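Note to self: the last two entries modelled the partners one at a time, which told us nothing about the interface. This time every component goes in together.
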Amino acid sequence: MQKRLIAFTAMAALTAFGVLAQDAEDPFADVVETRHGLMLQMASDLGTLGGMAKGEVAYDQASASKAAANVAAVASVLSMAQFPAGSEVEKAADSFALPDIWAKQDDFLAKITDLNNAASAMQTAAATDVDALKASMAQLGGACSACHKAYRQPES
Amino acid sequence: MSRLPQAVLGVALLGAAAFWLLTAPSSVSPSDYDGLVGDAKAGESVFWAAGCASCHAAADASGPDELVLAGGQKFATGFGTFVAPNISPDKQHGIGGWTLVQFANAVTQGVSPEGEHLYPALPYAAYNKMLPQDVADLKAFMDTLPASATPSAPHEISFPFTIRRALGLWKLMFASTDWVITGDLTPEQTRGRYIAEALAHCGECHTPRNALGGVQRGKWLAGATNPDGKGKTPNITPGKLTWSAADVVEYLTSGFTPEFDSVGGHMAHVVENMAKLPESDRQAVAAYLQLVPPVK
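The predicted structure of the combined assembly is written out below.
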């Protein structure tokens, strides 16, 4: 009985140590996950809006407005808070953030401002009609890709 | 026996003569361009479709700076690093002094006004299918852009790729003026083919190349290693790309994939360019992509 307890304690200690060691290796796991979560939330709402823009789903003012408000809310959260220095590709697990984010921080923040402006225009468009919504998708997509082009490592 | 060295010499001379003849820089037929008047407004669409600014503007240019075609972007390849030249209308450092035929020879034949072969980092193996009127319109538009006095930097390549004459052989083997996709095409598919195969030169990055850098037309748009050797371009044949036409149009307009990820890397330039064309052109490209033989 005591042997098993010792073994259990040793296992637990090792496991805890392993978790701690992992945390010590990757202090950026939480911010990287937060970033990806914010992007996925945005993708989910853009899915609603894009379905209408592509004509796959009938335009519905209420759900379009809700989705656009969510996009704007997520955009408003983005700041350097999710991008602490060092949370970059090859230094933080799962990160695709390029070092230029910190080297050209003013431009990076300007691109976040552009995104917020596009998201705010999209809220107006989403409440208007499907043609306005389509045009705002292009503007918002331009803001997304301007930042991804400069600051996200391409996949593969 | 004593005649053998002479025979060898004779064969060598014949070979050299054949090389010289085969590798001679070609020229457009000037009569195709006689009397053509370029329309700058129409040329702007050609300019964006052909993606000129994506390589010839400064690397981080955006907005109006994209129209300053001062060159300087570097393209690392297995053959060396090519540096995009100044193609702004500056008479000394750019191409402002070129005639329409000289411009057409450079763009569609890969031949400089001095009669030298240009390296196929300039996608003349695609642009060689451009209509003369589009070439004239493109020049008319580019003539309206700001001049830059930045001198062009030399390419960073070494022997044997420094022998420009040998590019004549490369052109014979790989710079076909034939369309890849043939058959009975609707007007929309034909327009899409013209944009994808001639202007936007999709195959230059999305089709694998052989050891000599020639595009493997049998694996058209089946995905390839990036020209700089890092990463891959995706297979965009119907064997892999299962997006609907509406998905392709949306991607080329806003940069959003069907999962609402957004475009990045060099393709972000392409989307910016395609977004400036009429929607019918993006629909035409989507219609064309569905015609491409599927590669798994």
